[in-house]
Amino acid sequence: xxxxxxxxxxxxxxxxxxxxxxxxxxxxLIEGDFxxxxxxxxxxxxxxxxxxxxxxxxxxxxxxxxxxxxxLNYEATATYRRTPQYLKMICNxxxxxxxxxxxxxxxxxxxxxxxxxxxxxxxxxLAGLPKVRTNLSRNHPDILSRLKILILYPIEVExxxxxxxxxxQEAVEQIYMSVKGDMRKFKEICTDCxxxxxxxxxxxxxxxxxxxxxxxxxxxxxxxxx
Length: 226
Description:
This protein is of the alpha/beta class.
C-alpha cells in the first residue's frame, strides 16, 4: 500500500466501504475519469480470507465465465454449451470476489449474467469511466440498483479539497465534472471563484440551488458566516 496514494480521506473511506460491501456479498462500481487512479485503487483491495479473481473486460461471456473458474484452478473451456454449467458453479462460489477493471469495455451481453452472480452473493468490484453508470441507468437500471457507486477523483483534486477549505467540497466536485477532467481549467475556475468571493468579502464558495427538486447547480454562490 502506497501511503501517499491512500492517505486522502476519500480513498480511506472508499476502501473501508468496499471491504464492507465485499464481506456482505455485495458489489461496487468505482467510477472515475482517466487518470483518477481506479486501477491503482483496485490493487489495494486485499480483504482477509477472500481471494481476488481478476477478469479481463474484453472477453465475451463464455470466456469470462471460464476465466473466473480457471483463476480458481477449475478446469474450464470457454464454450457456449458449458455456459449454464459455469454460471451455476460461479454462483455457488464462496471466499472470493471478482474484480473487473475497464468495465466500459464489457460486452453488453455479459450484464444479465453478472446480475445472476451478484444476486447469488458473489461480490463483483467494477471500475470504469462514468459512461458505465450511464449505460447501466439506460439499459440495466435493475443492475445499477444493486451496485454501490463510489466516485474517484484524481489525487490532485483531493489535495485541492483538503487545502482550500473556503470552497465547499460539493462545489469543487461540480467544477471538476464541468471541466471534464481538464486540471488547468479546473484550477483556473477555482481561483476565479475564490478571487470573486474575496472581492465580495465572503468567506465561502458553495453551490446554490433554486429549487429543492433539482440536483443541478444553477450557479456558484458566495456567502459569509451565518
